[in-house]
Structures are given as C-alpha cells and as structure tokens.
C-alpha cells in the first residue's frame, strides 16, 4: 500500500469513528432530553403490542379449602361441558358471554360463581336450533350435568320462569347456595331480538 | 479551538437535520402515498380478512334469525366491500366525501325476514317491527364500522392528511436549504468540503433507529387482524427503507470522502 492510500484509509476510518461517536452522542443526548416522551411512547407501544408470553396456560382448578377456583379460565376459553340428558343437549361451556362466545356454545356470565364454589352460576345460550331451542321442554327434577376438569356437578331442575331481560333480581348472584341458572331468549321461535328470557333454575345435588 | 467547537456543533446539527429529512421522506413516501397503501392492503390480504370479520360479526348479531353461514355470506358482496374500502382510502387522500351505501344489504335482510314471517304465517307485531329496525341498524353500523373503523374520525383524518400533504414538501425544502447552508458554513470555516461526517452520522443514526426501534413495532396488535397485518407490513417497509438509506448514506459519505479527499493530511 502506498503512503497516500494509507492516508486515505486513515482518513476514512477516522471519519467513521468520529461519526459513530457523534451518533452515539446524539442518541444519548436524545435519551436524556426526551426521556419522558420516549418512555411514554415506549409504554404506548407495549400497551398495544401482543405479549409474547411463554407462560403455559394452567388448568382450571378448585381450591377445596377456600371453595374458590385456584386457577380461572381465560376469557373466551372452554372450561366445561353441559349436558341435559332428558333433552339430548350436550354443549361446551365457555367463560364469558360475548357474541363471539355465544356463537360457539354456552356462555358463563362473568361475575357469577363456578361449579363447586357454592354460589349462583349463570349460564346463557342462544335459542337457535343447534343450541337451546328445546330448553322449554325441560321438566322439574330433570338433571343438568356440568363436567369440568376439576369435577362433575349434577343439578336438579326445581323451577322455570319467563322473565324480562332487565329483571336482574330474578337471576341473583349469591354465595349462600349453589344454584345453576340457565337461560335463553323467549319465545323460542322468535325471529328478532326479544326482551324475554326463559330461565331454568337447578340446585346442586349432594 | 473555537473553530473546532463551532464545526462540531454545526456538524451535529447538520446530522440531526439530515437524519430528520431522510426519515420524513421515507415515512411520507409510504404513509402519504395512496397507491402504496392500496397495494399494501392488497398484498396483505386485508380485504379477505375484513370480509371474514364482517361475516363473523354480522352472524353473531343475526343469530336469532338462525341463518346458516352461506346465507349470511350472501348478504355481503366481496367486491362491494373492496370497492368501499378503496373509496374510503381515495376519500381520505383526496379529501372527498365518503359515502358507504348499505341499502343492498338491508334490502336482503328485509327479504329474509319477510320470508320468515310468511313461512310462519304471521305478520310482525309492533314490537317485532321495532326490533327488526334495530337489527337492521346494527348490521348497518357493523358494516360501516368494519369499513371505516371509526366513522366520526374520518373527517378529522382527512383534514390531517390534507394538512400534512401540504406541509411536508415545505418542511423538506426548508430542511434541504438549512442543511446546504450549514454545510457551506462548515466548509467555509474549515477551508474545504466538509460533508462526510454529517452524512456518516445521519447514516449511523438511521441504523441505530432500525436496531433500537424495529422490534417494538413488530408485535403491535390494533383493531382487526386485517388492519394489524397491513399496519405491520407498512412498519416493516419503513424500517427496511431506514436501514437501506442508512447504508446508502454511509457508502455515499465514504465515496465523497475519497472524491474530496476530506481530512486527508497532505
């Protein structure tokens, strides 16, 4: 390499190093001067980003001491199966009651208790032909069986009622007794939205 | 000493402005380019995903009608959905009035409901008529919100896009002028061309930006699947351009260094 070539290389490398230092300086300066806006922006990005969680979903389980679920299901996930042998109904039960959930199966209303917790359980399903259209044919003392991975719970029907969708007193959420309330729209052959609901009340068998 | 300090400050300033100019150019050439947006939507299956979302949401709202999937699909024409989205984009970028016509969908619902009542040999009650109108309004709102996302935001977005479209060229010209002036001043102070360090620095800044920020934008989850996919594709393109321009600036700087023999002691 000639002397001028060496000088060329030296100049280029010097400029590269100086420019790299300049850019580091600018980044550090921006970090200090704009720390709050950058932090807010980073937080915003985290809030609207999907978390790449490697945490595996734990199975739903019941703590027998406290009679509360130790692990709750994820919203929208299936956690049980409901069957009414007398009506030949067998449907998946999902945690949540959004339109998306109700399209798939029976929805468990958030805020109500889970089977085994000793409180009121509120399930709902559409009155379509592939869901609960036959619910009106249920009789007193018919069995409703809810099978979860932490146990199978059998309930006996003791009452049915037709209520309005605003009659929240008719579907009370209480902890004193384990009652399963299953409801659907009424009349069963309604074509559009109806304000009436057909509710089945069933108590836990011992 | 003072000459060196002034040169240092001016070079830093020039680098920041050059970096900003390249960034503004990259973002505006993507985000403010209507054809780029339309082609991104096409490449990322936006229309299909939107159509699927639309069917799913409408199906949930029409569940009392107990319609099968094919009947729900027949309510919406895929080409009309695509056309409406394209009209929305055109309207936003060209500041035109946007009208989404849902009459054909509502007429189809009317026919389905009429047939259902005829099959049951009865006429709807007053309450049922009220509920039918509510159902049709729900479907109309679903369609409009799927196409427009936030109907009320559209006029604001149109104003912003129009404003940005007018301001960006001015900002770019102003930045170019300031950068040229700064380079001339630096060169005058140092009795020779002094362009390499600002070019190299802005190139490195672009590369730093790519390294520090790219991963933060790749996991964004906003609104629908289709919107999300298209948005991430835009971010990917922007970051790709950032790294390419960063490398180009560095190569350009080294070439100019050789050409103008900058910093080479004779």
Keywords:
heterodimer; A: 206 residues; alpha+beta; Sortase, Chain: A; two-stranded antiparallel ribbon; B: 266 residues; mainly alpha; 10 helices; 80% helix
Would you give an account of this structure?
- The complex is a heterodimer of chains A (206) and B (266).
- Chain A has an eight-stranded mixed β-barrel. A two-stranded antiparallel sheet of chain A has the order 1-2.
- Chain A is 24% helix and 32% strand.
- Chain A has two domains: 3-47; 61-204, Sortase (Sortase, Chain: A, Beta Barrel).
- The termini of chain A are far apart.
- The longest helix of chain A has 31 residues, at 3-33.
- Chain A is of the alpha+beta class.
- Chain B has two domains: 2-31 and 156-260, no CATH class; 40-149, no CATH class.
- Chain B is 80% helix and 0% strand.
- Chain B starts with a helix and ends in a 6-residue tail after the last helix.
- In chain B, helix 5 (78-94) crosses helix 8.
- The mean pLDDT of chain B is 87.
- Chain B is mostly helical and 266 residues long.
- Chain B has ten helices and no strands.
- Classes of the chains: A alpha+beta (206), B mainly alpha (266).
- Chain A binds chain B through residues 4, 7-8, 10-12, 14-16, 18-20, 22-23, 25-27, 42, 45, 48-52, 99-100, 102-103, 126-129, 185, 189-194, and chain B through 11-12, 15-16, 56-57, 59-61, 63-66, 113, 116-117, 120, 124, 128, 131-132, 134-135, 196-197, 200-201, 203-205, 208, 212, 216-217, 219-222, 253-254, 257-258, 261-265.
């Amino acid at each position: 390499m000639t002397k001028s070539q060496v000088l060329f290389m030296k100049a280029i490398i010097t400029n590269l190093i100086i420019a790299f230092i300049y850019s580091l300086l600018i980044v550090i300066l921006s970090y200090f001067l704009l720390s709050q806006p950058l932090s807010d922006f980073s937080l915003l990005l985290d809030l609207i980003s999907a978390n790449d969680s490697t945490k595996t979903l734990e199975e739903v389980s019941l703590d027998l001491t406290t009679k509360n679920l130790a692990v709750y299901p994820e919203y929208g996930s299936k956690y049980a199966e409901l069957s009414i042998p007398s009506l030949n109904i067998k449907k998946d039960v999902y945690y949540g009651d959004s339109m998306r959930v109700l399209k798939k199966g029976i929805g468990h209303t958030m805020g109500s208790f889970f089977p085994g917790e000793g409180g009121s359980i509120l399930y709902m399903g559409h009155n379509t032909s592939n869901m609960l259209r036959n619910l009106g044919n249920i009789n007193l003392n018919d069995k409703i069986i809810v099978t979860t991975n932490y146990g199978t719970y059998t309930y006996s029907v003791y009452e049915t009622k037709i209520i309005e969708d605003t009659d929240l007193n008719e579907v009370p959420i209480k902890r004193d007794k384990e009652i399963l309330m299953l409801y659907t729209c009424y009349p069963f052959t309604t074509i559009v939205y109806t304000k009436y609901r057909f509710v089945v009340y069933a108590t836990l068998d011992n | 000493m003072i000459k060196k300090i002034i040169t240092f400050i001016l070079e830093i300033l020039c680098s920041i402005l050059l970096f900003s100019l390249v960034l503004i150019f990259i973002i505006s050439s993507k985000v403010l380019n209507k054809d780029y947006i339309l082609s991104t939507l096409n490449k990322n299956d936006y229309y299909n995903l939107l159509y699927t979302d639309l069917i799913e949401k409408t199906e949930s709202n029409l569940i009392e009608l107990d319609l099968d999937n094919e009947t729900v699909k027949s309510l919406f024409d895929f080409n009309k959905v695509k056309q409406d989205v394209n009209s929305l984009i055109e309207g936003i970028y060209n500041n035109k009035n946007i009208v989404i016509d849902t009459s054909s969908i509502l007429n189809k619902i009317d026919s389905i409901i009429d047939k259902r009542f005829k099959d049951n040999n009865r006429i709807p009650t007053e309450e049922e008529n009220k509920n039918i109108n509510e159902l049709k309004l729900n479907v109309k709102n679903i369609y409009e919100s799927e196409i427009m996302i936030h109907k009320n935001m559209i006029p604001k977005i149109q104003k912003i896009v129009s404003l940005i479209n007018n301001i960006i060229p001015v900002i770019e010209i102003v930045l170019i002028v300031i950068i040229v002036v700064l380079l001339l001043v630096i060169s005058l102070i140092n009795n020779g061309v002094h362009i390499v360090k600002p070019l190299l620095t802005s190139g490195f800044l672009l590369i730093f930006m790519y390294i520090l920020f790219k991963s933060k934008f790749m996991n964004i989850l906003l609104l629908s699947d289709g919107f999300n996919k298209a948005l991430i594709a835009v971010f990917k393109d922007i970051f790709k351009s950032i790294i390419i321009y960063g490398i180009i600036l560095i190569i350009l700087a080294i070439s100019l260094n050789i050409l103008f023999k900058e910093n080479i002691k004779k």
